[in-house]
Specification:
single chain; alpha+beta; five-stranded parallel sheet; 24 strands
């Protein structure tokens, strides 16, 4: 069977790499792919990003199943387009993807269906938003209503930061948010205390298969300092998601969401990512929904997945996820993101990357913002690589990932030195 993966980041590299391991796969295409997928002999890059053109190509090539990685094509209706022409595709429709593409839609949905989340208000008028922040005080969270590549959230610890974020999102659009209909809008919500975790499931409209738990590091600098980013590293499993928290998240958040979407006439198919804030008592609240796998969470999760991903995708696109039992490597996996100079606000591109190792069973370098030019791999985005390792403990996976990362070089590269520190601390407490 021929398989198509839509996207060109680290998440898509990991999905394509995993799909290519299936005995039933004849060829995996990645559209548009990146420098890492270009140098993988089991993958073929396809330089098409226009949705109708991609659909026409998939029809002509008789693609058996398409898996969509990023939020952009989902919000643009790629699933609707492919399905309208009889093509099998895994992802949410344009209407269902509003759970991610519109923070206002998502918050209203959660309120309507009684799904635990932070209290909030929505604003289009900067003056009203500023007045609200002055009245409520800080810390407070300001979110752009639209797609912002993981950078449209500001956790403001002071009033000054909150006012600056409102101006960024409503007045200047410094963050480059793709606004929804009706123009710029922000969601301002209460600041929640606790520990964040990524809770990702696969949905076929009715049934749910849970992915391994994971946790990412959003802040740029060690010790969770500096600006928010798309994610500087991740590990799986997440110790904070205990069996009790897992059961609670399924019961109070995931299943009510799937049932609620079905009830609203927009059944959800695809990856559903609930960003959870788990308080000291183990109660999860929903920070946000994404309609796709997380990046960089996908990389360690795919390293741990033992089940044939193609089989899972075929079951999911046939409404038969209830027949699948996902099997996971008991060993933890950890990924360290190597970012470009100037990331997250002004990433530099075009730096030559050297020291990339050969792939191995316990360590993979997944490419995100790279391109191959004349046999040389160059940086081409903010988050450039994700060095991912599998080992008997989080500490060993961390050591292995950093050993590999130290051998890689490009000018101005930056990465955190403490990915996984929370998990290592938690394991220490439990031993």
């Amino acid at each position: 069977m021929k398989v198509l993966v839509v996207g060109g980041g680290g998440r898509e590299h990991a999905l394509a790499w995993k799909l290519a391991q299936s005995d039933k796969v004849q060829q995996v295409y990645v559209a548009p792919g990146n420098g890492g997928t270009a140098r993988d002999p089991n993958l073929v890059n396809l330089p098409i990003t226009d949705i109708p053109a991609l659909r026409a190509w998939a029809q002509a090539e008789k693609i058996g199943v398409t898996v969509v990685g990023p939020e952009g094509p989902l919000a643009a209706g790629i699933v609707d387009e492919f399905r309208a022409h009889g093509l099998r595709i895994f992802g949410p429709t344009k209407a269902a993807a509003q759970l991610e593409s519109s923070k206002a839609f998502s918050k209203a949905f959660m309120k309507r269906h009684g799904i635990p989340t932070a209290a909030y208000e929505t604003f289009t008028d900067p003056a009203a938003a500023h007045a609200y922040v002055d009245r409520v005080g800080a810390p407070i969270v300001v979110k752009a209503d639209g797609l912002a590549a993981g950078k449209g959230v500001v956790v403001a610890m002071s009033l000054a930061e909150a006012h600056e974020a409102i101006d960024f999102m409503l007045v200047d659009n410094t963050l480059g948010v793709s606004h929804n209909e009706g123009g710029a809008r922000v969601v301002i919500e209460e600041f929640l205390q606790g520990e964040e975790a990524s809770f990702i499931v696969m949905c076929d409209g009715k049934n749910v298969a849970t992915m391994a738990t994971s946790q990412d590091h959003k802040r740029l600098l060690d010790g969770d300092e500096g600006p928010n980013t798309g994610g500087m590293g991740a590990y799986s499993p997440a110790p904070v998601v205990t069996a009790e928290v897992h059961a609670r998240a399924m019961r109070e958040i995931i299943l009510p969401t799937i049932r609620g979407m079905e009830k609203d006439g927009i059944p959800f198919t695809g990856f559903l990512y609930a960003g959870l804030m788990i308080d000291a008592a183990g109660h999860p609240k929903t920070l946000e929904f994404n309609c796709r796998m997380g990046d960089p969470e996908t990389q360690p999760i795919m390293m741990r997945l033992k089940t044939d991903l193609l089989e899972v995708m075929l079951a999911a696109t046939a409404g038969q996820l209830d027949t699948m039992e996902l099997e996971w490597d008991r060993r933890p996996a950890l990924g360290v993101v190597i970012a470009a100079a100037g990331y997250p606000m002004n990433p530099r591109k075009g730096d030559a990357i050297t020291g990339l190792p050969k792939d191995s069973d316990d360590a993979m370098v997944f490419h995100a913002g790279t391109v191959e030019k004349d046999g040389v791999i160059l940086s081409a985005g903010g988050r450039v690589l994700c060095v991912t390792a599998l080992a008997d403990s989080v500490k060993q996976a961390q050591q292995r990932a950093y050993d590999v990362a130290r051998g890689i070089h490009f000018d101005g590269m930056q990465y955190r030195r403490d990915i996984g520190y929370r998990a290592i601390k938690a394991m220490g407490r439990n031993e």
